[in-house]
Design goal:
Elements (H helix, E strand, L loop, with lengths): L1 H30 L6 E9 L7 E10 L7 E6 L8 E3 L3 E4 L5 E8 L2 E6 L9 E14 L8 E6 L2 E7 L27 E6 L5 E8 L5 E6 L7 E5 L9 E5 L1 E4 L2 E5 L6 E4 L13 E8 L2 E8 L4 E3 L2 E4 L80 H6 L5 H28 L6
Antiparallel strand pairs: 1-2, 2-8, 3-7, 3-9, 4-8, 5-6, 6-7, 8-21, 8-22, 9-10, 11-12, 12-18, 13-17, 13-19, 14-15, 14-18, 16-17, 19-20
Length: about 425
Amino acid sequence: MNTNKHAKYTLAGLGLTMGLAVAAAAAPALAATPEPISAQVTKATSASRQTSSEVSVGGTWGVEKLAVGQSFTVSTVPTNGKAPFTWNASFPFTLDDGTVVGECKADQATLTCTVNEVPEAYKDKTAVRGTWWARARLQDAAVGTNEGTITLNGETVKNLVWGDADGTGECTNDCDSPVHYEYARPENLKFGWTNANGTIGWGIKWIAAGGVEYTVKDFDTRLSPGVKCAKGDTWDPATTEDISATQVDANTIKFTAPEGAKVCITYPPEQMKVPEGQNSVTNHAEVNGVKLEATATVRSNGGTDGDGTVTPTPAPDPSPSTEPTPEPTPTTPATEPAPDPTPSTPSDEPQSTPTPDPTPEPRVTTSPVPVPTHATPKPEPKADAQPTPAPQERLAKTGATLDGLGVALASFLIGAALATAGYAINRRYLGGDGR
């Protein structure tokens, strides 16, 4: 019976040990979850209350140490079932020196900045901090509203007043009404903008009159037959007419403006690439002989910066070792001299940031171990000499006295007595053989 019990106890102990080992192995995996990026929205602006006007949002970000998988997300709350603004384009997640550690990916109204790699130069940096900013455009879903919501990692952090061009929390531009469709101002204009892929898109707008035939030609890119003509003050779909023009050739279209038209517009379907080494491009067009020209400059749609610090490696503790030096064995003395101890010095590794050099710690030296000598017989005590101190005085230096030894001896005797009694009981009640 005892054998079985012992086996059960042994198996239970092994199971507990294995369980603890599995838990210990799993602990590092749980601890490997990357620390989330702490981010804030510090400023947001809205250029106007007309759709397609620019929205700009910016703030700060920071982590204790960079790690792959860290991220933060900036978005908005849908209005009328759709996003009131959408981000212009994705951009690299970079640091002060131009190092790219990830990407800020724009997907409609969601902008997520994620760390995809940690360069060697940043693996030991701590307190990594920086700023971020991104451009967006007001959408038709915001029509009829006065403000929108900005969220950070799913939580509302700021209400943005449309038309707040200064970021003060109050409308400062185009404040006579809520958000409305873009103004359809009658003007002859060629204009361009930066697309998400770094190319330039173009638009051609001109003053129109109902019943007049117009021939539109673009000298730098092809045209499509799609044309819009506004009859009201804005590009409200209810007062805007879509027209399919006649395609004369790849770069030319012709059509007659509808009655009541005030201004018409067409968008060349092709995106123009910016020549290598340049940051702008010029486009030329013509409407019924009127020359139109515009130069568009590539604009960044967002960006980040940031840096951290390197904590200096602490110098070794200058305190001498507290481990006792072993007593020499009284054998033949060594003939080779003991080597000089190597002094401990502070780290001389160069620091990666221009922080003040730490004060050098004092060098530490230790005394060389004495060479043992032959044991020599002690001289006989003289008759009038003082008696040798009792052993208790030497024992007191290590914390053991005769009184202490007496207590220990008594404890030992009591333990032995209990063991003897237990053995006797075992013999009596278990049949003499322990079963």
